Amino acid sequence: MDGLEALRNRYLQEISAASDEAALEAVRVAALGKKGEISLKMRELGKMTPDERKIAGPALNALKAEINTALVARKAALADAALEERLKNEWLDVTLPGRPRRQGTIHPVSQVTEEITAIFADLGFSVAEGPQIEADWYNFDALNIPPEHPTRTEMDTFYMHKADDDDRPPHVLRTHTSPVQIRHMQKAGAPTRIIAPGRVYRADYDQTHTPMFHQVEGLAIDRDISMANLKWVLEEFCRAFFEVDNVELRFRASHFPFTEPSAEVDLRCSWEGGQLKVGEGDDWMEILGSGMVHPKVLRAGGIDPDEWQGFAFGIGIDRLAMLKYGIPDLRAFFDSDLRWLRHYGFAALAQPNLHGGLSG
Ligand code: DAH
């Protein structure tokens, strides 16, 4: 059949020139579609004599097969090229370092609270909690603080607002953690050993006072607990907390309405070049208030003072944090300044415990 060679060359050329799948499909339809040039020639075979057909048939079939093969090959080549292009554009360097993300830190108050909790847990104290908005009976009366006591005035205490027709008892933002003693005694009875860390509030603001700060209360009640037990527990606590063996404490007679006798406790220390050293030197630093629980307080907690006695103490957590970690200004604790938090904060995964080292 004439012209097959020309047809072949033209289609093979068009196939190799097709630059995308749509162009390739157009070539296929033109050659092999229902009305394609080669399909029409196949149809003409019927009009031929058997001799003519014997020659033209195989030649046309061969051409059809060759063009099909070329179409398939070109299609694969186009797909490869497209993939190649995509890989080039979407190239990703998996060896690049990851984008750094800022890691948060544990606030010194949280850190020190954990340290204190770990130490007292080791001494057999569990943790108790109470509300920060407290009935003034728990905050004052139950602790033997009489109505005329100066701390009850509006000057030091934040009173909750009360509408004229509100006949609920007055409430305050608790001024100390001591009311947790009463709540715990009422709930758990005696014997008992707890600490109660938490927020407290007083109307006060200067370099060492903020309107909100943190205390930890301690309470131990049993049949024959004495000041000697108190002294040992506090010494043991200071040794562990300051991580110094030769801690020396000084008990100074004092007065608190809720303890009798009462003592303020000072820690022997030295300040050299602004650096605090615990257990040496000629300075004494007040760190806490303590005493034997007043019989009236035991009674307010529902415990019979003829059968039970105990000691209590209250420590300023923020102050301990300032001392241990050399932080000069209390107010900065609550400014939420990220630079300060990064500087004084602690690694989140280093949980304080007595065996791994308190400060991680
Ligand atoms: N509640 C006292 C305060 O806020 C601290 C205190 C002193 C607590 C003596 C006690 C204690 O439990 O026995 O200043």
Describe this structure in words.
There is one protein chain. The chain is α+β, with helices and mostly antiparallel strands and 360 residues long. Strands 1, 4, 5, 6, 7, 8, 9 and 10 form an eight-stranded mixed β-sheet that branches. A two-stranded antiparallel sheet has the order 2-3. It has helices at 4-17, 21-32, 37-44, 50-89, 108-122, 136-139, 179-188, 227-242, 295-300, 317-325, 338-344; strands spanning 126-127, 133-135, 171-173, 192-201, 212-222, 249-256, 259-272, 275-278, 283-293, 309-316. The radius of gyration is 44 Å and the shape is rod-shaped. α2 runs antiparallel to α4. Bound molecules: 3,4-dihydroxyphenylalanine. 3,4-dihydroxyphenylalanine is lined by residues 176, 178, 217, 256, 259, 289-291, 312-314.
Uncertain segments are: none
Number of helices: 11
Mean pLDDT: 92
The end-to-end span amounts to 93 Å
Largest sheet: 8 strands, mixed
Question: From N to C, what is the helix and strand string?
Answer: HHHHHEEHEHEEHEEEEHEHH
Counting helices, strands and paired strands, the structural category is alpha+beta
CATH domain class name of the largest domain: Alpha Beta
CATH architecture of the largest domain: 2-Layer Sandwich
